[in-house]
## 1
Amino acid sequence: MSLSANISEKAALIWAIADKLTGVYKPHEYGEVILPLTVIRRFDCILADTKDAVLEKFETVKNLPMRDVLLRNVSGKAFYNTSKYTFERLLDDPDNIEANFRDYLNGFSENVQDILEKFKFDGQITTMANKGILYIVIKEFTTPKANLHPDIISNLEMGYIFEEIIRRFSESHNEDAGQHYTPREVIQLMVNILFYDDNDVLSGNNVAKTIYDPACGTGGMLSVAEEYLHKLNASTELMAFGQEINDQTFAICKADMLIKGNNADFIKDGNTLSDDQFEGQTFDYILSNPPFGREWKNEKAAVEAEAKRGFAGRFGPGLPAASDGQMLFLLTAISKMKEPQNGGSRIAIIHNGSPLFTGDAGSGPSEIRRYILENDLLEAIIALPNDIFYNTGIATYIWVLSNKKAGTKREGKVQLINANNLYEKRRKALGNKRNDIPENAIEEITKLYGDFTESEISKIFDTTDFGFTKITVERPLKDENGQLVLKKGKPQPDTSLRDTENVPLKEDIQEYFEREVLPFAPDAWIDEKKSKVGYEIPFTRYFYKYEAPRPSAEIMKEIIEIEKELEGALAEVFAE
């Protein structure tokens, strides 16, 4: 059985436990019980092998200030449980299931208590106990289908199972089916590029690096990055940092980090835009799939206050429109880059098409693009196929940024890769996800990026190719007699005739004006005070292919054939 099929089957078996909730909970509420219990059961299975040793040690160290460290040493994990109960032992006393289960949960170490609190699970215990189903549900979680021991389910598989359960929960809740995670093939592509050609990471011994995701969800991106790096070089340590606003997904992310033995203290909860938990910190790698098309009005006061600090804060280059906060995450990522003299950083971040071109010259989005391009931070933009995400079918792009381009072939250059057609159809859609990026396509895209050469789907530009000066072209104002209206001897502009032109940065403005404007308006002039520099990346224009329209005779023939078919169908209907 394939990995994906095995994960889907295991998640389905766990989700089937929700049948025991019928009547007490509505279908869209099942996840409120199944998600936290799956996490707790995973903890239970992981600690099973050292349970008795931990209980024995607890009796001798429970009054010592260092008991936390000592008990973690015995459990062999970053967490432990000092209650005498396990899921199986809870079944020995059905009459006291609620009190005993609470005793069991209270036995977890403090780092797990934080996770349980974020799940808001206490109220669900009360509900299930009052309705007489708590014992039944816990019993279901002790059956073979819910055996989550690491000998049976690896950490990687467990992360997938968490996400599959969230997807099922989201669908029953009429939420975006994939708003909390990103398809694994997309993450794999991002990680391929993120680590590309970093020799010290790929071949060094005992190297420690950091990676950060400002919208980490369940931690899928961080997990895949760590897994990938360990395949390349098992001696390299990748310390994962992330922030997540959604309580449930934060709880799962932190649980996943604990389960894998990572430092779960590096996963923070809270709103990244208004409450940056990693202020002043920088990282070797940054990757993210932040929400796009979502307003940031609730964070407006905090964001604007930080913007007033200029480049002492994250938002010095400018602010996007309040209707879409994705470029604020982009600026957050840039602010977390290490200085080049300290090794620099690389970013891979997903956006929709909006950050490529929205906003006129001088606007916030244009100024953000200007900052990125004039500081030579943009390495590449990769257009992904449509319909590969669970919650949207629109065009999406991976932006690759780096501040260590100096002296390389990429200096002053930007590569655009159009991978829009590199996909295969899924047999069954998952939400909006109808397509996958196959392994061979991931390899092709990675190679295109690495080779840094032009092809039918790879084009290379100078950073200045995306810049322009927006000039304001004025025409003179005349009165009814056709005389020029003058003020202090100067002709006054007719605002109704005012126009603008975008002059590429590589062109001389006066030459452009004389060639493109004066032949059609000899009396025009440029109001230089209104000139503004702007940047946009018209991605689709660079890859546009003209397709000649079909011959009219061919179209007419097709129409006639359709009409004949319709006539026959109508005749059959009326004959009846």
## 2
Amino acid sequence: MSGAVLWTFAVHAWPRRGPAGALEGGAFLVIGLTLAYLLHRFALPFIAAQLTTRPPRLRLVWCVTCAVMSFGLLRALPLHFIRSPDAMTLEVTATQEHAPSTGHSQVWVKALRRADGSTVEPNEWRPEKADSWELRDDGVWVSTPQQPTKLQWHGLVSGAMTLVLQAPPHSSVTEYTWNNRTERVDLHEGEPSERMVPLAVPPSSTLDRLCFHAAHVLALSALLLFLGLWLSSRPSWEPRLTTPASWQDAAHAVPLVAVACLWLLAVYPGVLTSDSADQWNQANWGSMNDAHPVFHTFMLHWLFVLWRTPAIAVLAQILTAGGLLAWGTLLLKRAGAPRWALLLTAAVMALSPVNGVMLSTLWKDIPFSLAMLALSLLVFRAATRTETPGLGFWAGVIITGALTLLTRHNGAPAVLGTALALIALRPREWRLAVLVLVTTFALSAGSRALIFRVYDAVPGPAGTTLLGYLGAHVASGTTVTPEEAAILDDIRPRADRWNYHCFSNVFTLFDGHINVEALRRHAPELPALLGRLTLRDPKPVMNHFACASSVLWRIHQGADWMNTNPAWRDSTGQFTTMPVGMAAELHELHPAPILPALGQRLLTGVEASLNPDVSWVLWRPAVPLYLALLACIVVCVRQRTWRQATVLIPLLLHTAGLALFIPSPDMRYQYPAFLIAMMFVPAWLAGGRNGTART
């Protein structure tokens, strides 16, 4: 196992573009020896000592679990196979063959690019004769009239490369030799332009791939074993149930509120999208449409009465998030979480770019996610306190649950999960929990009906949740009866296969070809229609589910589509917080940042973090979900109780419901996972000072 760890380190750390220099080689040797010392002096003896204290069956469970998890991580993380570098030679030949209309020819070698996008340095090329090629100031090699002549490069190659040739006015027929094969490129054809010549590498052997993956599985297994055994061996929390609240608990929220307010000043009056514009207009001037939950629009309306700017809604979100953080750290402190873990929680919440952007945005998803965080904190309180909850606790569950139902149409699974968690924690009070659940739904339905009556709200379009699955059948050509074809064509002509894209129904809904009235009229028939089509051919439904839900469970983004909170550029190239031209929709509401320089820096950082190779760390919803599950398992193993696992039941049911009917790969739908993970993961992974409980 130690050898696998060191070999894995060497694969990723050793320079692969040529022989290592003395400094690089020395640094590699020092780091490798240090790693070997730490492994043999501390890590491996610790693993062995911890495993020997456990029964043989439990040792097997630990090893098998870590091996399975490491194999899954190897598949999920961007740890792509790195082949052993091959020494390769590329020869470019200016053949002297030229177009009949010209009396001479030239070959321009513009660049040689590696698989990672880097470029070979121009001085690494070697001309056949000193006066047969000229290196220009811009790094381009140009052949002289002394032809035929060759230009050669030799180096280590670990991935496919690309030869970039420039076709000048007097172009030559060029030959290149790569991997013992010679090919011709006729630069006479077409207008002067770049010619991209792909250079493949010999396929790697099966043994190389097997060794690479086996070493990584062993290395990751060792890492998981060490972390898992260390975390589970940490002492349990020390409950401090009688600790009163103090100003220090509120101080945990200060960094989050301060940083979020800086974000607001930098993007004032907020980051606005087309959804934001729609709700701004509804709340101020238009009739309410339940496509965006009317209760959220109702709340915005009364906030805008106080101050007609999106900034007041952003401030309300910031203060609510700060209040929940202060309350959450108080609950964690009383449950026994150490002080440093609470400080880490406060720092993570404040510095997360996800929170900075999301709290500055006018979306219904923000209050919904804050309400779900409050539900999780209520369940945590019930899981870590022994006394019977009072009236205030149950009233809090009802109000928070109603807000969850009212701020998004898919809030029911989270509320149901809260009730199930409370029943699991207090089975003797199941009747009270059921009564609270019924009261929550009744309060939500009554509030919504009252808003509809008072504001003459318009129901949202019905049937949209099934459009993705129906579109999958249309695109795959599932056999339909004449009656079914009539329904589908009435909703949207099938000639373009409903413009179906598996990851999002936005293309089907908003390209101007959908008949909303027909969709509303046929909505009661669509579930049965989908059922019949699926019985005939279940494959389109399964493929659509796997594709549409991948944003929730796949760690590495890769080539997948993922929508985050965007930033746009105006005509001057500067970042702006609303799409160009949207001011007319917002009745002349313009971006007016109070700290514009800070705003440009923040949005530049956000844009950089959205690179697919990086974004999965910060923005991919699967990462906080898996971290929360892992930390929850650790705390349950350490405390030898399942009670705190109930905290994640609302989130898991919400995620399951979202996976079934997610309309597009928007990370905002899973913003509750980010908030809940940031609140609980540091404290769950932290241990106490000793195992002696105190009250």
## 3
Amino acid sequence: MHMTSVVLLLLLITAVAGPAARLLRLPLPLLLIACGIVASLLGFHIDFEPETFLLLFIPPLLFSDAYLMPLHNFRELRWPILLLAVGLVIFSTIIGGYFIHWLLPMVPLAAAFALAAILSPTDAVAVGGMIDEERVPRRFLHILQGEALLNDASGLVCFKFAVAASLTGTFSVMHASLGFVLVAVGGILIGMALTFGFNFINRILSRHGFDEPTTQITLMTLLPFAAYLLAEHLEASGILAAVSAGLSLNQSRVFGSAQTATRLRGSAVWEMITFVFNGLVFLLLGLQLPDIAAQGISTANQAGDSTWSLIGTIVLLTSMLLLLRLVWVFLISSTRYLIAKLRGHKTGRVSVTETAAMTIGGVRGAVTLAGILSLPIAENGLPAFPMRDLLVTFAAGVIMTSLLIAALVLPPLSRSLRHDGGDPVNREADEARRLLALEAIAEMERQSALVTKRLDENTAQQRAEVTAALIAEYRFRLRLLEDAPNDKLKAEEYQSPDALHRDTALARRRFEAALRLHLLRTERKALARMRQEGQVSDEIERLLTHDLDLEETALSGSARALPRHLHYTDGPKMCSPLIYTG
């Protein structure tokens, strides 16, 4: 099959798997892996090149996660994230390496360290596909995302040192530590430097009028690949360079002052890239599993071990990683609790449920597979990596086992996680909207006082009427936001006449937004019918459809900006906006 047909088929499977996972109520990563396994068993094979895989998939995905990472939360949780992303990786590599060598004496110690190192990175994407992110605490998600963002780099760096030690037969703790720092710092600096250059070029283009959204988005899409390639060429960490570029771009807020079209199109482009690449990663994993399993079983049988013994070893390795992670998470939470107590801060202990969820959430994924498959093979007279096929089988087995455990245990476990009352994101957003409304009202009052002095009476009256209407609109929005309930209070405390009046007004506003959206969709259908009947040309239809789309986007944003919750529990309720589906 031609490569073009292969790529198109993979994209089709990825696209269809999304709605199929919702219909079957299965985690999307597991469904894609299953699709890959079935395709492989039906004779569909792809030559997997780990270096190409790392270049094509990992940099944009990590860059996207870093660019979208909430920096405020990242700074607040920096110590738990760093202790998990770096400390746990080193802890797992050392303890896990000795455990693997003890469990499998035929595996050299350096090779055991290499396997333990490549098993240490986690995959937050897989976890995100198994839980409802709207129903779990944001802190839990931010820690998992931040850990996965950074431990890929630390795990791969440890892996490279272990592989080099296995091939050369020499290892120095001092040399490895110094090399780790140089590789990490080099990658971070390269990512920051390229982001600075991107921002500089973007400002020059914008200053001279070359600020087309397509140009800016294309340059941004190429940035993670440029950071990765340059860092790898200079023997630094390409993954850390891509992460650093995303975080630097996030910090600089270069698109904060960009055109509206650039922000909207850029968001759409990155959403598509993230969805497609995440899907392809797990699909390719499924395609490789049958061949990996066959090679591993053959190698184990040649060594005198049965298939069941191989499965038992994989289960033991997975249990060892879970135990090490559990111990590390418990040590971090206990240490933070003791430090807070010594400083006199009020803090609660991390519950058993939260500790278990954080432990199970350490799922292994794409980086582990790509790294283990990059082990040298026998070619051009060079020897293969010791026990390569067996190590690849163990890594693939641990990936599948961790995914299955997470798919079975994590969803019910995450639903019982402790919440801090309501959605903190919605509360913070409502408070920000309240402050923005106050700023807008103050600006209109200031402008009204300045402008009316310079205009004739008729024009001044017209502008005063318009300004008064807008101020009334903003004050109504402000009243809705200022009366927003505290989620920790009981619902019956909101049965006062003022609260019921607010709820009625809020329901009316939602109904109005729903009706406006329904009418816009009615107009769009009528426009399509007019084109079919020849009343308007294709060009006019595209122009008016674009205008309707922009108006619908604005209306949808206004509807989302309304407070989320109604207070009353009795009495008539206005219909939901969902009654109009277009």
## 4
Amino acid sequence: MTMASTEDEELAFGRFALWPRRRVLLADGAAVELGARAFDLLEVLVRADGELVTKETLLDRVWPGVVVEENNLHAQVAAIRRVFGPDRDVLLTVAGRGYRLALPVLRRLVAEGARGDSGSLPQLSVIVLPFASLGGGAGEDQLADGVTESLTTDLAQALVGGVVVSRSTAVAYRDRAVTARRIGEELGVRYLLEGSVAAQADRIRVNAQLIDATTDTHLWAERFDHPRDGDALAAQDAIVGRLTRMAVLRIIDADARRAGAEAAPDAAGLALRAWAAATTARMSAEGFGAARDMFRHALSLDPGSLEAAAGLAEAETYAVMNGLTPASEREARLAEAQDLADRVLAARPDHLGALRARAVALRALGRFQRAILAAEAVLALCPGDPPACREVGLNQLYLGDPEEAVRRFRQADLSGPHDPARWTWMQGLGRALMQMGRDAEAVAALRLAVEGNPAWARGHALLAAALWLNGEHPEARDHYAEFARRVPDAEARVPSRSSPVPADRISEAYHRHDARILRALGDLEAGLPKQ
């Protein structure tokens, strides 16, 4: 069974919007009549996004395989201009060559059956303004342009259910003294992301800020330095990965707050609120329960919602992997999550949420190599995605390669140093470092994991083990006592009883590397006061 997409693409320009799937042209939100040939011609011009389209191209695209006179083309252009009325001049004639549309085009997805309203602000819409180069040299200008272009591309992939204004439209605002509110009104976008890049001899300094265009207020700003080690593309990927992740988190949070303020949010609004709740849940039973309920409610309102289906798939897989699902329901919940992810990917093969859910489900089943491939598919679309890097790292751990796992966990942290889910890759990093005998480094990583989510009981156990192996026995006993307080059942504290993956699929190398951790936990358990 596949999930039929209930979304159409909207191509909005000025007061008009084109819905190609339903072959509808809207003017000020109302449908207007346009003949079939004229509609095809207009779609070609709109998709060109302001670029010249030659007469030869138009004849070939609108009348494929048919020889027609050029006056037929002139007649269809005239039909479009009649529909445009007072805006007829936005369809420009380039003498002797062809035509072009002199308006920026905004692309977004709209629900099947939705009422056209080109004057309303689309949810999750953002424009990446050209990043300024503060160095002034050709290399610095190239870096700033590269960051802008890659950030636009990666945000378009990562901002599920949203729309990112094309790079060609954004360039028109370079060096223009225009307020955020004005840009929002002109393009119908809700958020602006802007910044600057300054390259020095040994580092690259990046400033970025996210602005709500409807209120002209700052939602987030960050300044950070990245080492300049000679690999310009690697530096660019790291910078873009970090900016993409933080911008997506902030935009989703802001739009979720908007949806929460509505008396009766629709399926898209509920899915947004659920994504925000899942992101900040830190694997708590209450937080994930609320997120799952909202995703299910969104699906009941719109069974075809790809965002709600992908979100529920992710929420269910994470709940299973973190012990928030009863053992008796584990198999059924994983099967449901896989089915949801498969249905979303059948309609949209590049959906990051569904790809992440598939990767986690495969890890839960012990299919580590396939899980890595699923996570790598996310990274191919959005390099540096922290959850995908974490998934590769965890699977590499189970395959017995802690060195590669450490590299992937550090890659996740490079893109998500302030991410609410940071503790999830820090605990993996700590475990991998312990397996390699680098206990002091493991202590530092696991302190960050516990600080990021002190309610996660097993984080205290892992930190206790690292401290014990590093010779810090008094503090190790304190953290293990905290673990025992949170997990009072001694049987439940046995590591083999809480493995999130099938033990028989874990590599022998992993078991060998993990033996010293298990011995430390055994010593700490034996040292607990007798009840």
